[in-house]
Design a protein that fits this description.
The chain is 0% helix and 69% strand. By secondary structure, it is mostly beta strands. The chain has a 5-stranded mixed beta sheet, with no helix packed on it. Strands 4-3-6-7-10 form a 5-stranded antiparallel beta sheet, with no helix packed on it. The two termini are 21 Å apart.
Amino acid sequence: MTLDIITPDRKVFSGEASAVTFPGSEGQFQVLNDHAPMVSTLARGPIVVQSSSGQQTFTVDGGVVEILQNKVLVLAEAVVV
């Protein structure tokens, strides 16, 4: 699936991912390929991205994630790499 993590200032990450773990406002959740469409708010915490090149972690201060047809878009308030 493709993943884009965007802040008001810049695009933080754009690429392929096999799994992504999010800090949802109601609790942590993971998205895999072919996940059902959904929109969720994010709390402050880590986004963990699993890809063929390994694992990357981005800490967000909150935001929104949209999952639709193997495309994941994160609109984050701020990201600390």
